[in-house]
Amino acid sequence: MWVKPQEVFLKTPLWDTDETTLYFVLQRRKGHGKSKGLSSLLVGTLDSVRDTKPAPYRILHQTPNSEIYYVIATALTEQEIRQDWQWLIDNVSPTLHSFDTEEEITEFVCCKINSIIATEQENLTEDEDTITYKNVDYDFRQRFAMPKDEKLVCYYSCSYWKGKMPRQGWMYLSVHYMCFYSYIFGRKTAIKIRWADVTELAKTNSLLFPDSIRVVTRDGEHYFTMFLRKNETFALMQQLANIAMKELINDKSGTFNIDKDLLTKLSKNVPKKPSFLKRDLDARKQSNLYTLRFRLPHTEKLDGSEECTLWTPYNKKHNWGRLYLSQNFICFDSRVSHLVRLTIPLRNVYQVERAETGGTGSTADSGSILITTAHHTSFLFGNISDRDFLCYKISELLAKLPNDVYREKSTRAVNRPEEGEWTPQPPLMTLFKTHQTASIRQIQQKKEKQWEDHMAEVGRGVSMYRTTEGSELVVNGIPECLRGELWGVFSGSILQKAQNKGLYEKLVNDALSSKNQANDEIERDLHRSLPEHPAFQNDVGISALRRTLCAYALKNPTIGYCQAMNIVASVLLIYCPEEQAFWLLATICETLLPDYYNTRVVGALVDQGVLDELTKVHLPELHAKLDELGMMKMISLSWFLTLFICVMPYECAVNVMDCFFYDGAKVIFQVTLTILDINRELLLNCAEDGQAMQVLNDYLAGIYNDEAMALCTEPRTAARTIKIQELVYQSYRSYGAAVSSECIEHLRLKHRLRVVRQLEDSLEKNTLRALLQDKLLDANELQELLSIIREELFWAKRVPCERLEAPYEAYRLDYGQFKTLFSALSPWAKGDCADAITTRMFKLMDHDDDGLVSARGLSVAVGLSTRADAQRRLRALYCAHAPPLLSPLELRPTHFTDTGEELATDAICFFDSIENPSTPEPILQRSISEVCGDGQMDKSTDSAYSQCESWQPADCVRACALAGLPSPAASTPGTPPPPRAAPPLPRAHFLQLLAALHDLTQHSTPLYEAVARAGTLLLQLGELNHRPALDREISQDSLFLAAAAQPAPEVDPNGNPTEVDLQKPPRSPSKESEQDEGVWSITLEQFLATMLTESLLEDYFNKQVPIMPMLEALRQRDRLQSVS
């Protein structure tokens, strides 16, 4: 790469010269390439410790009489520097002799290099990364053998504690890895940790490890210290670990998507980051905090922020705070917490103009703008440092909005099928009114009047001013008639509804017309959802609930449906119109309580840890008692998942939901802490968990709300404990400041690492327990195999997914991954037929024919080929070559195949040539009847295989191959497993099996001859089906002697049936027994008995093959590129 010419006075101390001319010098950094010796060790150590990272190759310009040199090119590889060197020799050197003075030569060379650089930069808007960063990125990939798609985020100087001595070096943080490298006088230290394996990140400060960062993995602990920017490093480590954990939670993985809009975004006062990816991650972090604070959709990206004042007309004051801009919103948050907060959708902005007056004590030119919305509401922002730039940014964002965003267009209704016609319901409380006493009706009217007066001052809808007065009204409880409207505003779900017009209707139509597991689960739970409310004793409410839940299951298949969602959705439908209830449910599941309602309820488990830590901090004595009783897990799951609806009276739980939508998840933590604090003395005196749960249940059942009607008409028996408004107020007063939303997010980040790792470990243990039942591989081998499978899935950008059938189904390998591991571990995957045998074993283990094999499929395939007895191994090979697993396409001769692969055709031709010998082999001393007993082997198989009429033939073949192993769970409860029978092998299939056996034994002449003898006998036995006149009662020995006289069928030069034979329509299994006369075939019993008469073959297939060395080699391999 050409660089702007820079002067250097010494050319040799740290560099070796490779080539030199009169005017140019090509140099290599000591410690790179061929450089050796003490000087190379010193330079390598210096480069490892220094902050600057010079490129290892460079070109200098020199003149004979000058002591000054100019660096004109640098490169990371020798190939790149050689290209630049050759260009100089060909294009620049020939012209330099025409100059008169050395000064002119130097001036010409510098101008030439600068012009090349200028020409290259004309096509670039902005370079993503600095040259230094690219040098470091190159070192990072070389030192840790990283794939091309792994992205380095940032690097920091630090020390790693190895034993009792710190090693100074560099920490590299990439999207999927944390690495450390140190090189001190020839001693190299390299550490490579995957973020998905991290279980804990923490700052520590002890005598042994002062001011350090501790990284805990399943394999051990690592301590890093002496950071220049410790807080920045730790924050970035947490962010990257969190990204990895969320990929595991959501069963998703893939390439990290960079926001390229940052390159072209107009910005001011943005500090330069060492890499573009670091800038992208910082922007992503800021955007997440922004969307969390203002309850905006997750897709919003923060564009920038500005200090200013906001004029609030209700109290006629200028309030200092910060203005935030994103693609669709303008937001403001006051400097004093909770004083005032504002959200303005850009789609509502009608006009932005410079105002004539600004903030307090400001002049007309102090920088004020007036934003007017389409609803004729004006917002005045003052004391803006660069008003023109802010106006330009707002104009730019407005210009990027879609054209139809400014006006509400009437959308045509979707034509629904007559039989599926439905109408979205209004709030169910308007259709099914509960009886209210006069006092309660009066309280509700008073509350409604207070809210109407408040909204007359601060506005209504999305752009209302959020003030402390409004917070107090929320704590006292929102009136029932306004609850639906205000829930939508406070939660931000109204914004999602506005951005996705018509989506709910489409989702409902699609969901109701489809059949899936989620819909069946929803149907079972519909009548258990708030059955005491009259709305859900009627088909109107049940149908609305069904539509809401089914539509969300279709919208977010990652979550689908989870129990407790029906309870929450029922309450939402009572107070909100149907579509708004749907978007409120989406906001709860995706924003307010993330990952709560997936199959593993990860979010609830994470919040268990958060509650546990908060209790330990604020109620240490009680925490110790509850921990002793094992109570914390029992509390959080049942309370949090249903937002207290199932544990306290319904009319009280909705008051908690008022605050939950207003202030977020922090409310459920502070209410829980308050309940525990109030009952502290009683809980400390409990002797067992049942007694403690009874204390809490009695307390929760006694909470009352005199300002709303209870759903239950029966008189309440529980003794009154506390008024709900008082409980909520007390929770804010005691824990409102200590338990903030930022605190909750920070603790969730910390505990997510632990929970996800525990779930992964639990899944792995359950998988190991299931695989050990096969009794093929031992526990250590299975543990190593699972670790390697996880590594393969990681490099393939896939993660284990939670499945309900069996734990090993979570690890699913495609053919490429199966081939990689089976080829490395199985003795059957060696030789000319390796690919063919691997493919057939993959098909044999792919039980549902979806192109994926479970971890059990791989362990069974490896176990059968290395540990099973001879009969089971031969049976597996037989079944892998049986129809329909071995398709007619694979039976075509080599010159007909598309890939041109040769499947041991020499073996097939060999068996064809000896198909009709004059006399049987004299070495064969044991007859088939001696091995099989009574000579009924073909009849047993035919009769067993005829039982497969109700099953797919492939299922019967697979069941036969896995005979002796535990059967996997049936897909339908009560369904018996398929019969374990394999069909007779046609001649073409049998020849492929013989070719595979020949390939497996070709390393040994005695084994080769044994296969030849057994194959000859089996080929002759197959001819007996061509002799209908032969009496079926003749002994098998007599049949063998008569087989030599039978004519061979027509075959091609490779020993395969002719195309005429291949094109014959296959017969159904039910007709096999009727028409087996005249058909060439070999049964499984015949095959096993014949092969096992050869003692050499029996010993060979009984041989136990150790696989631990191969597993170790797989673990230690260097992966230079990811598996695609």
Provide a descriptive summary of the structure in words.
With 1124 residues, the protein is α+β, with helices and mostly antiparallel strands. It folds into 6 domains: 2-123, no CATH class; 131-255, PH-domain like, CATH 2.30.29.30; 276-356 and 365-400, PH-domain like, CATH 2.30.29; 483-600, putative rabgap domain of human tbc1 domain family member 14 like domains (Helicase, Ruva Protein, domain 3), CATH 1.10.8.270; 602-752, Ypt/Rab-GAP domain of gyp1p, domain 3 (Cyclin A, domain 1); 774-909 and 955-962 and 979-1028 and 1078-1123, no CATH class. 47% of the residues lie in helices and 13% in strands. The strands form 4 sheets. The chain has an 8-stranded antiparallel β-sheet with strand order 17-18-19-13-14-15-16-20. Strands 9-8-7-6-12-11-10 form a 7-stranded antiparallel β-sheet. A 5-stranded antiparallel β-sheet has the order 1-5-4-3-2. A hairpin with a 2-residue loop joins strand 6 and strand 7 (165-174). Helix 30 (834-845) packs across helix 32 and helix 37 (987-1001) packs antiparallel against helix 38. The chain starts with a strand and ends in an 8-residue tail after the last helix. 41% of the residues are buried.
